[in-house]
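Task: sequence design from structure.
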């Protein structure tokens, strides 16, 4: 089915907010070392930009997850496709998500990582769709609240396409 992408957040608007989030996170950790965990694949673009605005000693790690098939509806099942490369016990960990929709993915990942005894575990999400929440998850640092539309671009895909768009837009079917 042919589709078009209607812009929602421009590259400039995203860049400004990501800079602010970086400053907010820098202040929140007050010089302490941080482990930034990017939830793949969707948050790799966001994480790459965000980390360059965080002025702390940090290391990055990656957690691969999959919660959708080829469509746009959640399956409710979170699959871990790639685990962290190092232990996080005793460390300050910030989970970086592209979008919190039903909340199931983050809730699952928080449960999983908590068992590894980090000194703190917080969440930074670029986007949040509160109207779709199935479980409450604390988002410590949030970029934008958006309405219930399926969005792509800036790392977010639709059946693996559109991750390379520099802006975020809504998929509309013709
Ligand atoms: P949740 O478990 O909170 O329902 O969904 C989180 C994951 O679903 C996100 O990391 C993302 O991969 C995917 N997702 C949820 N909403 C959207 C959306 O509007 N666009 C895209 N591309 N992915 C989404």
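Answer:
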């Amino acid at each position: 089915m042919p589709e078009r992408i209607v812009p929602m957040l421009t590259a400039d608007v995203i860049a400004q907010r990501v800079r602010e989030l970086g400053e907010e996170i820098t202040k929140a950790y007050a010089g302490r070392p941080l482990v930034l965990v990017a939830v793949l694949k969707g948050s790799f673009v966001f994480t790459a930009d965000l980390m360059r605005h965080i002025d702390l000693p940090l290391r990055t790690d990656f957690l691969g997850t999959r919660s959708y098939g080829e469509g746009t509806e959640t399956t409710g099942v979170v699959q871990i496709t790639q685990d962290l490369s190092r232990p996080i016990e005793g460390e300050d960990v910030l989970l970086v998500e592209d979008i919190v929709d039903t909340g199931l993915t983050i809730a699952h990942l928080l449960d999983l990582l908590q068992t590894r005894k980090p000194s703190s575990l917080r969440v930074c999400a670029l986007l949040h769709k509160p109207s779709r929440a199935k479980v409450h998850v604390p988002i410590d640092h949030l970029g934008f609240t958006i309405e219930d539309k399926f969005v792509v671009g800036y790392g977010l895909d639709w059946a693996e396409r559109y991750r390379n768009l520099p802006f975020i837009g809504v998929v509309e079917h013709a």
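DSSP finds three helices and nine strands in the chain.
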